[in-house]
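Reopening this one. Same input as before:
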Amino acid sequence: MCTFAAFAGVLFGYDSGYISSVLGMAEFKRAYGHHLTYIVDGVERHDFSYSTSQKSLIVSILSAGTFFGALISGSLADRFGRRTIIIAGCVVFMLGVVVQISVLTVTALVCGRLIAGFGVGFVSAVNILYMSEVAPRHVRGAIVSSYQFAITIGIMLASCVGFATQDREDTGAFRIPIAIQFLWAIVLAIGLFLLPESPRYFVKKGRLDKAMEVLARVRGQPHDSEYVLHELAEIQANYEYELQVGEVSWLGCFGGGVWNRNSNARKVFIGTALQMFQQFTGINFIFYFNTTFFQQVGLEGPFLISMITTIVNVVSTPVSFYTIERFGRRPLLIYGAIAMTVSRRVKPPKHRWLLTFCL
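Same output, byte for byte:
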């Protein structure tokens, strides 16, 4: 069940990854760009392109939609259920895809990616919550890591599709990679109709009978088994403890000071800083702009090199499934950061395949 729920990562990864290839396609530049005339060695040449600001807006607007979608998805998931909000996110996402492929203007593309990002925010935030509440405790870290693995697969699939359609001489060159997103959203939405709701959600709603039924299903145990009753009692005890502590306001999340070990502000800072600095490493530049970057620096086969970088990303991610449970979360973050630091200090190799591997 959790493995299928992790399929949401394919949707997120594909949506993040397809834009890199699309931006580098000649047909995309012809459809969305403006005509250019320039002189090279005394010869007049013609081309199509778009401005850097348009390129930045097209790429970044997805993250803006994801931000606001994720921001409100938590309260909606507590009210309507985890599964319901993930399905709703898929529907919103598909509406965004319709806008992107129906009108060939930068404005429509930006609006479509904003709407799709809003749906992705629903899916990405609530899906992790759903998986963590359904997964058995002793393998929770590995199972939740499978979501990141699914993201890398989605990015790789987007790169492969872009590589396959790059030479088309019609709007299918970029419309096909965009439209394929429908498939991931439909598969996820239909599949979630067959999966149970989170047992913790039912406990919060006071429906212990449904919580017991779900636990029995996801653990493969009889309803009255000691294993199910013990885990249900643990979930209920945790929820009652949260009620005793009381609800924390948005302002309360930042109380107590960052240097106070037990303060909410410190916990929020650590959680958000980990995510922020992960992005500051530059990984999103590689997956959002790699094709156009390789084109601008004059590398041959930019679509192929981009595809190889995504394959390397996919192959390396499953290592965390074992190591996260064997060595813990913190050591992986520390040694992973050290490895990235070392790779930044190594002189970039001239051979494009070695360069691709280092990226």
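So the earlier flakiness isn't reproducible anymore. For the record, The chain has a mean pLDDT of 83.
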